[in-house]
From TrEMBL:
InterPro entries hit by this protein: Asp/Glu/hydantoin_racemase, Asp/Glu_race, Asp/Glu_racemase_AS_1, Asp_race
Pfam family, one: Asp_Glu_race
Superkingdom: Bacteria
Family matches, as SUPFAM superfamilies: Aspartate/glutamate racemase
Alphabetic keyword roster: Isomerase
GO molecular function: isomerase activity
Family statement drawn from the similarity comment of this UniProt entry: Belongs to the aspartate/glutamate racemases family.
EC code: 5.1.1.-
Keyword Isomerase listed: yes
Entry protein name: Amino acid racemase
Keyword match Isomerase: yes
Lineage: Bacteria, Bacillati, Bacillota, Bacilli, Lactobacillales
Length: 241
């Protein structure tokens, strides 16, 4: 457990969560952290602060069209607030927001953990170098090659869907989960099946936190699904404890 000294008193360090992208996914992450933490009393839970900054503009919209509202200034303001608070590290509960991570790190006093890197590392541990890993993520994450770069860096082959199935993924994320707080089980499971059977993937990375919500609410029964947000939660608990 990390501690810092305040005067003559030792206190646990705490971390910061930049969330609200979306809010249900942020709730899902916090729930996962709490569930993964071994506790016997209130004081055993981890110390953290959550910024549910729901008004941050859509990340994918900006990646494709820089005339759209830019999420970076609001993300930077959150980082500056967390600097003032003195967190030990920061996580962002949005994969697409990692498009801005390197720029945000320049103004952050604490390390900003990389969910895509942690997920790719988990994937590397679970697979061999000949494995094909499907990526389910937003258009923005796919276009920016956030996961492709991480997987190639780990020596694993990334696989992305065709345009039709990518459109279905976006519909699941935006039309169903973000818009209606609803997981379309049939759509989600058909997409997973497409990656495993049609694209012959050995593993699938859920590279969007809304897809983490889908897996929690309508789980596809497979040990070969790597939930990026859940991997981040496991990493946070392991290192904070």
């Amino acid at each position: 457990m990390f501690f810092r000294i305040w005067g003559s008193r030792k206190v646990k360090e705490f971390f910061g969560i930049i969330g609200g992208m979306g809010t249900v996914a942020t709730e899902n992450f916090v729930h996962a952290v709490n569930q993964l933490t071994e506790t016997h009393k209130d004081q055993d839970y981890l110390d953290y602060i959550v910024f549910n900054h729901a008004s941050i503009p859509d990340r994918t919209a900006y990646i494709f069209d820089h005339t759209k509202p830019n999420p970076l200034p609001l993300l930077q303001s959150d980082v500056e607030k967390l600097n003032d608070i003195g967190v030990s590290f920061i996580v962002m509960t949005c994969n697409t927001a990692h498009y801005f991570r390197s720029e945000l790190q320049k103004s952050s006093k604490a390390p900003i953990l990389s969910m895509p890197n942690i997920a790719a590392s988990a994937c590397q541990t679970s697979t061999n170098k000949d494995s094909k890993v499907g990526i389910m993520a937003t258009d923005g994450t796919i276009s920016a090659a956030i996961y492709q770069k991480e997987l190639i860096g780990k020596g694993v082959q990334p696989v992305i869907p065709d345009a039709h199935h990518q459109q279905l993924i976006m519909s699941l994320i935006y039309d169903d989960i973000k818009n209606k707080d609803f997981v379309n089980r049939e759509k989600y499971h058909q997409l997973i099946t497409y990656f495993f059977q049609t694209l012959d993937c050995d593993y699938i990375i859920l590279g969007c936190t809304e897809l983490s919500v889908a897996q929690e609410q309508e789980p596809y029964p497979s040990e070969y699904i790597i939930d990026a947000q859940h991997e981040l939660a496991k990493y946070v608990v392991k290192h904070a404890e």
